Amino acid sequence: MRFKPTLLALCTGVSLGFLGSMAPSVSADGQQRVELPLEELRTFSEVYTRIKRDYVENVDDKTLLENAVRGMLAGLDPHSTYLDTAQYQDLQASTSGAFGGLGIEVGQEDGFVKVVAPIDDTPAAAAGIKAGDLILRLDNRPVKGMTLNEAVKLMRGEPGSDIVLTILREGEDEPFNITLTRAVVQVKSVKSRMLDDGIGYVRISQFQSRTGEDLVKAVNSLKKEAGGALRGLVLDLRNNPGGVLNAGVAVADAFLREGKIVYTDGRKEKAENVWYATPDDVIDDAPMVVLVNPGSASASEIVAGALQDHGRAVIMGQQTFGKGSVQTILPLKDGGAVKITTARYYTPSGRSIQAEGIVPDVEIKPYKLAKLDEPKTERVREADLKGHLRNPTKAEREAAAAAASRADLGDDYALIEATNLLRGLAIINSRTKKG
Asked: What is the pLDDT of residue 46?
């Protein structure tokens, strides 16, 4: 079942001068009757008149009314907003996988812009921007007091142009500056590679309209490389800020054979939807580990929550962001749109993720591994003893081949732990099948 946005009619043509009596407004579909609040509109009219008459500079009507709409939506929650024509086009481009800018998914906190997550292979990721960073200034302009859309507009610009971000980061004593060069961001949402003998790795950086299809293609490619089947899979959703809801559903569905994936609940009946899994598992019930962190949000949490509730995967990492609300894009006649929160979503067991997030089954702190210095004096080994027994040559060849087949995991502690866990689960599964 696809979530179909309900197109809400907007009440227009309200006189800002004399307001006579309270007049009812009826939506275009005739289903909802809204009473206009007379006293509050009188106050709005008075403020509007004072600005037009007394403000230090002349402000045109369109700017005033657009700012009023922005403020009305911004006061609802951090995710509801008004999009002008250019912003709406940018949003459509970002969900399709190509857009200009820095490659940062942002929200707002205490009047500042907060980084939800940097997107892979973008200027932000390359410069070391981290989830949780607070952006205090943009090219020395204070962010405090700006709307989120105003801040995003400043961050966008001509590819090749620079912008300086003043960052406040947890654990740092003072704010610091990072210079980023804007680029046309081409986001490839799904990447994959083989980690070990039969253990695959899939990284999803953002949920786009084709992410579900791309995931299945990537897994099938890994299966072919592994000789037909995988012994295990790491699904990396770290710093994935979310995206298209249906894409998250498709990814979860790829690994579930039955049951609920997610359901939504809102004020309107059309906002109440349930998505169910279809009877296929793209990795044929092989063990899974899903990596998450505080930058995993929205659709990432849908996937992690569904796989966790069904016992299909071990969730490993850190508690996720906690964005458990659904935003619907409602196009407007002027070419813009309203992005408005219409529902909350829940995991199959009925857990709300809103402001809570997904708590991992295995908590992994964001450590990096460092190689220890080799001892100056080599230790005596069995092979150094006179008359030691020698292993068969075949065993030596097999051990060397196994070591060579393992990919270099670098200093990514969480990924190393996930791979080690899958190796153990694969051993247990193989012994169970033999028994």
From this structure: 95
Closest of 305, 385, 304 to residue 350, by C-alpha: 305
- The answer to whether residue 358 is domain-embedded is yes
Residues 74-89 have pLDDT tens digits of 899 988 999 988 888 8
Name the domain boundary from 186, 204, 220.
186
More confident residue, 145 or 264: 264
Residue 107 lies in a domain: yes
The reply to whether 209 and 115 lie within a common domain is no
Residue ranges making up the domain that contains 176: 98-186
Q: What is the pTM of this model?
A: 0.73
Q: Do 179 and 121 share a structural domain?
A: yes
Cβ-defined contacts of 187-191 (< 8 Å, 24+) = 187/94, 187/97, 187/98, 187/99, 187/103, 187/119, 187/120, 187/121, 187/122, 188/97, 188/120, 188/121, 189/97, 189/214, 189/243, 190/214, 190/215, 190/217, 190/218, 191/120, 191/218
pLDDT at 374: 61
Q: Are 146 and 155 in contact (CB under 8 A)?
A: no
State how many domains the chain has.
2
Catalytic residues: 298, 309, 323
Same domain, 168 and 299: no
As a whole-number percent, the residues of the chain with pLDDT over 70 amount to 80
